[in-house]
Amino acid sequence: TASSPPPPQAREILSAAATALNSDETDDNQLPLPAHSVIRLIQCPRCSLPLRTPLRLPCGNTVCKSCLPPIRQRTGITYPANDERKEGFTCYWGGKDTCSGEHCLGDCGTDVLLSKLVDVFEEVLANRGATPDTVDPDAGFSLTWRSSLESTPMNARIGCDLLGGVYDLVKQGRFDYNASDVGYAPEDSVQQGVGQSFGRLREAVRNELDCQVCYSLILDPLTTCCGHTFCRGCVAMVLDHSDLCPLCRRKLNMSSTVRSEPINNRVSELVEALFPAQIGTRREGYTEDATREDKERTIPLFVSSLSFPTMPTFLHIFEPRYRTMIQRVMRSRDKKFGMVMYNRSGRLQQGLGRAQFMQYGTVLLVERFELLPDGRSLVIASGVSRFKVISFEMLDGYHVGRIQRVDDIPISEEERQESLETSTTSELPSPSVDAASTAPERLPTQQLFQIALDFVEKNRREGATWLHQRVLLAYGEAPTDPALFPWWFASVLPLWEDEKYHLLSTTSVRERLKMVVRWVRKSESREWYLSPSTGVFTSFTPFSMSVSISFGSAPSPASDGRHRAQNEESEAYIPQTLVLGIFLALFATQMAINVVQIRRARRREP
């Protein structure tokens, strides 16, 4: 998991907690670290007061809402075009650790969990420190420290409750976040000075630290843009099924970056400091689960054609090895398999050599499975995610690959790239300049998307066959989300698969839209018809391969060479509507046959 290294204060806290964990003392009421280090867990690093409406920043740090840097309008960004992303600021931690330096205000949600924890500290520790009216000046503890704001050492009498006394100093603004050389007197009575405060605080805090997905002590806390905090692994699991927050149902734009997002540093430090033994046990169990999950990052590969995330794939399976494969997939818990296209040109690929298939593919989830009486099957699956094959082996005639997930960069990085490309060009395109003559790299992301939409609408008016009603019935209308549009466009556009394949390795929406615009321009100039191809050409890619090579036995090197030689002399184009019509007709016919067989069986019953 990715997270920023802890600051010096956090390292002090975690070191003390580790010492307590390795010691033989297990008294829950015994303070495992200095009192000021405990209070610092809920202290703002800017104003040094207890956090007020704490905001979790995208870099993992936390400040009071009132302590945010000056807000300004963001320029040069058109995607995502949300109102909440139009404002931003320069972070205090810019250039350090994992902080990019620039944050969008929309990514800074109120930290709900930390707000509750601050309230717990207030409830348990308020009014437990020294007061002039109730405490003998010579009684209790004396605290000395060196402030980062003062040149002379500071001191204060804090009463008999260490935690309560330090907390009161923080509330008064007298004890700053970066205080150093902190000392307590008398030192031999420090643990007695904790009293029952730490035990009550620890118990009250523990009640708030259960993840609302797994209901266990929160591990690697990840705070969403809506302000809710869960285990990182739990967020990843939720996003495999939905893009909504489990609590407030707000849309989460982190499905592709959840494993690289910085954790919530403040909550993580608090858990590690107050519950070192419990979190150690929890982490050991999670490590075992992660190891098991890593072993499961193998997936059966269907070597056929191109499939894309969020798009349907239609398969007619009759080859014995793939019958076996799909039966095992249907018996598995997740019902997923990988789709990869043939390496028709015998391209040399890193780690795979001249493997029969291309390195990048799409994970498919089986949504509809129809087993025919003779063992064949009709399958409808949808794309879930992309992957890169690291290695592979053969199992009962089909390939099984060890894969690495391919994710997009964070939205913040997407925005940074657009701003950089459109603002640093020496000659930016003016509104009067035709976008057709402008390089895609110089165009805003939203304009790239609009060019593609205009192209689709133009071809629809002209009655393009690749936008036939049957095609739209299978793939749906053109998406209005720029993140989804390239996958849809590649699924319906009659373009060589070798061109479309490059989409699978991209890691940003902007890069994919730039590729789409290049396709649009090639289409309008008919350049792609001059491009060489090594296979049957059809835009209905999932079924095209059943016509050519994918559902038969794998070709031998000799037959594959003859096949490529024949293709060099002539290329075939199969109309998309015809292929789709054939598939739907087969599916409907088989369903009708099944109904007839059921009726006949019922008639024979006495």
UniProtKB/TrEMBL annotation:
It holds the Pfam family zf-C3HC4_2. One of its GO terms (molecular function) is ubiquitin protein ligase activity. Residues 296-524 form the Lon N-terminal domain. SUPFAM superfamilies: PUA domain-like, RING/U-box. The keyword Metal-binding applies. Residues 414-439 are annotated as: Disordered. The chain crosses the membrane at residues 573-596. PROSITE patterns: LON_N, ZF_RING_1, ZF_RING_2. Residues 211-249 form the RING-type domain. Keywords: Membrane, Metal-binding, Transmembrane, Transmembrane helix, Zinc, Zinc-finger. PANTHER family: LON PEPTIDASE N-TERMINAL DOMAIN AND RING FINGER PROTEIN C14F5.10C (PTHR23327:SF42), RING FINGER PROTEIN 127 (PTHR23327). This is ATP-dependent protease. Residues 420-432 have a biased composition (Low complexity). The keyword Transmembrane applies.
